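To illustrate the input format used throughout this study, we show a single complete record. The first block contains the structure-token representation of the backbone; no residue identities are included at this stage. The design step must infer an amino acid for every position from geometry alone.
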């Protein structure tokens, strides 16, 4: 665990070992286990530290002075991610010491950070109060919460949700994730040209309402896709085989999508004819009128 002038190690039997910081008064703060088997920690004086289990310490200076890194966690990409409270940034450091900083759009003052169940990093913000999400490629999304709340700690629970402490309201918050959205319609019926056509695409999971679109290809001429209901309807005017890919987008934040490839065959209309003779039966030499009924 961090100390004012270094780090300490305590065994399960209570034996404490102190390791002085590489630089004086570095003020170690947050700490986590790294993917390389070492421990990684923040230093409020703008450094990230690494300590092996034998006590060897390496320090890496941040590009931004006065950033005050606070908490740190391991990301799904094998790097370490940390909050820069005063610098208003989320930082990333590889196990080889390469640092990248990502500015937060608002003056969020990030506090704690955790690896989320969706593979992104989630962090709490103190001003304005909110919860932030950053992907491993650096895309940040912020979600404001009650302005009178004060989100502090954040972690992923065993139920796959995020759990957040609110120190001002003395409350615990839970952030649930929608199940994955998927298209359940696997194929579409064929139809004859010049006749009315109707079929409906269906999806499950995610968060409704859904929005439907075509991501590849086009429908047969005369048919349209309703973006709200997924209904394909109209009167086909061209025979042929038409391939396309439908896409559904749900209302989750961020939105989830799913796609499915389809083929619709539109054939020529079938014509049935009936030949009727009058009179019937007729005698030899009698005039007979033949009528064709279509």
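Output of the design step:
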């Amino acid at each position: 665990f961090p100390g004012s002038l270094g780090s300490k190690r305590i065994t399960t039997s209570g034996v404490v070992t102190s390791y002085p910081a590489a630089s004086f008064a570095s003020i170690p703060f947050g700490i986590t286990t790294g993917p390389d088997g070492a421990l990684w920690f923040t230093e409020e004086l703008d450094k990230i530290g690494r300590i092996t289990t034998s006590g060897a310490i390496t320090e890496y200076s941040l590009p931004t002075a006065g950033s005050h890194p606070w908490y740190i966690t391991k990301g799904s990409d094998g790097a370490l991610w940390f909050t820069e409270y005063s610098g208003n940034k989320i930082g990333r450091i590889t196990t080889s010491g390469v640092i990248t900083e990502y500015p937060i759009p608002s003056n969020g003052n990030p506090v704690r950070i955790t690896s989320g169940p969706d593979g992104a990093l989630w962090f709490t913000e103190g001003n304005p109060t909110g919860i932030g999400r950053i992907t491993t490629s650096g895309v940040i999304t912020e979600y404001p919460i009650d302005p009178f709340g004060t989100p502090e700690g954040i972690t992923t629970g065993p139920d796959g949700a995020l759990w957040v402490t609110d120190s001002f309201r003395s409350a615990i918050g839970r952030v649930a994730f929608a199940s994955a959205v998927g298209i359940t319609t696997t194929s579409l019926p064929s139809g004859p040209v010049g006749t009315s056509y109707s079929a409906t695409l269906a999806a499950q999971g995610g968060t409704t309402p859904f929005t439907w679109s075509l991501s590849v290809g086009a429908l047969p001429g005369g048919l349209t896709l309703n973006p709200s209901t997924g209904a394909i309807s109209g009167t086909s005017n061209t025979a042929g085989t038409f391939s396309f890919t439908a896409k559904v987008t749900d209302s989750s934040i961020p939105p989830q999508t799913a796609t499915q490839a389809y083929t619709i065959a539109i054939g020529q209309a079938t014509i049935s004819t009936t030949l009727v003779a009058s009179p019937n039966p007729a005698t030899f030499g009698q005039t007979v009128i033949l009528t064709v009924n279509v």
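Structural context for interpreting the output: The mean pLDDT is 87. DSSP finds no helices and 28 strands in the chain.
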